[in-house]
Design goal:
The chain has 379 residues and is an alpha+beta fold. The protein has 3 domains: 165 residues, no CATH class; 87 residues; 121 residues, CBS-domain (Roll). It has 12 helices and 12 strands. The strands form 2 sheets. A 7-stranded mixed β-sheet has the order 9-8-7-6-12-11-10. A hairpin with a 6-residue loop joins strand 2 and strand 3. Helix 2 runs antiparallel to helix 3, helix 3 packs antiparallel against helix 5 and helix 6 runs antiparallel to helix 7. The two termini are 33 Å apart. The N terminus is likely disordered.
Length: 379
């Protein structure tokens, strides 16, 4: 939905790491094994009726189809990944789960064309895989295992490709729609809102289709079809709702400014007593302390929570440097940043506080992540 190999290992994501194609980790979540089991037992009957005399080997063939199906899903997701990487957008991971797969692209596309190109790559590849499987099945004899697998892959890939082209987020077709509206209106968040509401409409349709088809054919709805349709509908609805929330943030982001949100800070040497550092802070009217080395280089940001937890009687006897968090390269941002550039800088290496410097390198102050969150919530 919508290439370096590594030894399988557990990750804190809750999935099984199976490889790193193009340097991007691919995880199989535990829900995939549930789907594999359902396919193995659910598809076995079709295998038995298509290949007479296959006996219990039908389960092996059915399991092979489950694996091939998710390999197709992986290729679908890799197509998103390749296009994103070629566009200069880093991809955090690919996850294969209950209802398909997802490519986690870390940065938003810079243009509508880039967004649409990344989105359409997956369905296009799925349809190509379906066409190739169709050609292969024509070369195989009927009532053979190879023919059964080729037919199943033809159908499944075409369904995946067409389904993902439906015009609603979080499906790939929704991203294409969002890009189109973005192109026309010039507003990214407007495209997201339109495509997300269309996604909710698609979810309702997906929920109702199994029952409507059964009624039209004069039969009663199949329980499996109803449950599967409800699962797909809930997935689309929740994804669309999440996209609406993201769109609200997108609308607020342009108003963010590092200079406006930064707490003014003063530099203090590492070995200055905490009590003296706080006296200087109050005297200056600033709201933050930046620890500097002997040559004046910023090396740490004083943690406010740690300071508040220290009794006043102890503050004259401990150096302020003991209450600082070492500044990493990614925790220094320019006071000139605003909008999406500011958000990108903060999400690249998450932290509770960042050192904000002038373009010439002078200390401007300390930017707290909680202040950014409050600004987004207020706007």
């Amino acid at each position: 939905m919508s290439s370096q190999q590594a030894r399988p290992s557990r990750d804190d994501s809750g999935g099984l790491l199976i490889g790193r194609p193009f340097g991007v980790p691919v995880y199989v979540t535990p829900t995939w094994f549930l789907v594999a089991a359902l396919i193995t037992f659910g598809f076995a009957g079709s295998v038995e009726s298509s290949v007479p005399g296959i006996g219990q080997w039908k389960y092996a063939v059915s399991l092979a189809f489950a694996v091939l199906l998710y390999l197709s899903v992986l290729v679908h997701e890799l197509s998103h990944t390749v296009v994103a990487l070629r566009s200069g957008l880093p991809v955090r991971r690919i996850s294969l789960y209950l209802l398909g797969g997802v490519s986690e692209i870390e940065k938003p596309a810079a243009t509508p064309a880039q967004e649409a190109g990344i989105a359409v790559a997956g369905p296009f590849v799925s349809l190509v895989l379906g066409a190739l499987a169709y050609l292969v099945q024509g070369m195989l004899d009927p009532s053979t295992v190879g023919r059964v697998l080729a037919e199943a892959l033809t159908y499944s890939n075409i369904v995946v490709g067409i389904f993902n082209l439906l015009p609603g987020l979080p499906l790939d077709g929704g991203r294409v729609l969002s890009a189109g509206v973005w192109k026309v209106t010039g507003a990214r968040h407007t495209g997201s809102v339109v495509a997300a509401w269309c996604g909710r409409g698609v979810a309702v349709v997906v929920l109702l289709v199994p029952a409507l088809i059964s009624v039209r054919n004069g039969g009663s709805p199949d329980l499996f079809d109803l449950v599967w349709g409800a699962m797909l509908a809930s997935f689309i609805w929740m994804g669309a709702s999440q996209s609406l929330q993201v769109a609200q943030v997108q609308r607020r982001i342009p108003a963010l400014s590092a200079r406006a949100l930064t707490r003014r800070a003063i530099p203090v040497p590492f070995d200055v007593p905490l009590a003296e550092a706080l006296r200087r802070l109050h005297e200056s009217g600033a709201r933050g302390l930046v620890v500097i080395s002997a040559d004046g280089t910023p090396i740490g940001i004083v943690n406010e929570a740690a300071v508040r937890a220290t009794p006043a009687t102890r503050r004259p006897w401990v150096p302020v440097g003991d209450f600082s968090r070492r500044i990493q390269a990614g925790h220094v941002v320019s006071a000139a940043l605003s909008g999406e550039e500011l958000v990108d800088a903060l999400t690249r290496l998450p932290a509770s506080e960042y050192l904000v410097v002038e373009p010439n390198g002078d200390i401007y102050g300390v930017l707290a992540a909680e202040d950014v969150d409050r600004a987004v919530a207020r706007s």
